[in-house]
TrEMBL record:
Domain HTH araC/xylS-type: from-to ranges: 212-310
Organism: Aquimixticola soesokkakensis
UniProt xrefs under InterPro entries: AraC_XylS_family_regulators (IPR050204), Homeodomain-like_sf (IPR009057), HTH_AraC (IPR018060), RmlC-like_jellyroll (IPR014710), RmlC_Cupin_sf (IPR011051), Tscrpt_reg_AraC-type_HTH (IPR020449)
Protein's recorded name: HTH-type transcriptional activator Btr
Lineage of source species: Bacteria, Pseudomonadati, Pseudomonadota, Alphaproteobacteria, Rhodobacterales
Keywords, ordered alphabetically: DNA-binding, Transcription, Transcription regulation
Region (Disordered): 1-26, 297-334
GO MF, any single term: DNA-binding transcription factor activity
Signal peptide: none
């Protein structure tokens, strides 16, 4: 029997490369050198291209991107998802990402992306010098794995983002602050990387340290068989009390919470290893391959094998190494 890895450890490097592997260990993202000009706090621009080719890359800057007139696949961290017109995401520093277009909504017009780059130093200074803008720092602090905003939120900021790069530089930075503050104070975005993991609920939030013991136990042992009686003993409550407290704090049942943790682990293993489905099922805590496939499809809308295929069918790999940003007028590759 294959040895199970600790829940949060990376999978072993595969001994052979998966044919056509896209995000496997054999394919590393290339480094994009973003060059924010001296005297500027951000760089905003528009890309217009005949297509968005798959370019798996990362950079130390935050990136706010609004995609227009394009339908395709978005790759962020360990996740793959379709995107469409108005797709609005915020990506944290050093988070690998790529877009791969399938077709333009209006084939007579180019695929477009409004891109805003800014640094962690700028965000830190904003929060330190302007307490009224602290919500921006909070938003960016949750963007480590990427955030996707709703269609309603995107529509509300679309016109402003479409013109932001055309404004004088001083107005660009003020407009970017305003947009980020609006995003921070609006509807909660959806996390992209490990999207199915339930948000951490700290004891201070639920005012019950006993529940925190349950959450810590689940986070450490979700790949094992979970018994309700053991959880009740940790919290010193009855089963009905625990279920009620847990759902009020996390908005999901204990069973759903555990499933989300297991599916999130499966996301990593499907994208980063060549393990067979049976081994992934075992490592994530599912009883068997069929149970794993059923739960994964219910959570994501795709079978595990289909998810792995979508994750890896992303075109030829880009060579590693330094890749300076092209001049703005040349529209850097997406």
């Amino acid at each position: 029997m294959a040895q199970k890895l600790p829940p949060n450890s990376p999978p072993e490097a595969p001994t052979t490369a998966h044919k056509g592997a896209g995000h496997s260990a054999a394919r590393k993202p290339w480094y994009e050198a973003v060059q924010i000009p001296p005297g500027q706090s951000c760089l905003n621009y528009e890309r217009r291209l005949a297509e968005f080719r798959y370019n798996w890359h990362y950079h130390p800057e935050f990136e706010l991107t609004l995609t227009l007139n394009s339908i395709g696949t978005r790759y962020v961290g360990d996740t793959v998802a379709p995107y469409g017109d108005g797709d609005l995401v915020l990506l944290g520093p050093n988070l690998p990402h790529a877009w791969k277009s399938r077709h333009a909504i209006d084939p007579q017009m180019p695929h477009r992306a409004i891109v805003c780059w800014f640094t962690q130093d700028w965000i830190t200074q904003l929060a330190a010098t302007s307490p009224e803008l602290a919500d921006i720092a909070t938003l960016c602090g949750t963007a480590t794995g990427g955030l996707a905003f709703s269609a309603t939120t995107s529509a509300a900021f679309r016109a402003r983002l479409e013109r932001i790069w055309t404004l004088p530089q001083a107005q660009q930075i003020l407009e970017l602050q305003s947009v980020l503050l609006g995003l921070a104070q609006g509807d909660a975005p959806t996390p992209l990387d490990r999207p199915l993991r339930a948000p951490p609920a700290r004891a201070a939030d639920v005012a019950q340290a006993r529940l925190q013991r349950v959450l810590d136990h689940l986070d450490a042992h979700y790949t094992d068989h979970i018994r309700l009686a053991d959880l009740c003993a940790l919290a010193n409550v009855t089963p009905s009390q625990l279920q009620r407290i847990f759902k009020r704090a996390t908005r999901v049942t204990i069973s759903d919470y555990v499933t989300r943790l297991r599916v999130a682990r499966a996301f990593q293993l499907l994208g980063r290893s060549d393990w067979p489905m049976t081994r992934i099922a075992q490592d994530c805590g599912f009883s068997d391959g069929a149970h794993f496939s059923r739960k994964f499809k219910a959570a994501t809308g795709r079978s595990p094998s289909r998810y792995r295929k979508d994750f890896r069918d992303s075109g030829p790999p880009r060579p590693d190494g330094y890749f300076p940003m092209l001049p703005q007028e040349k529209h850097p590759p997406r």
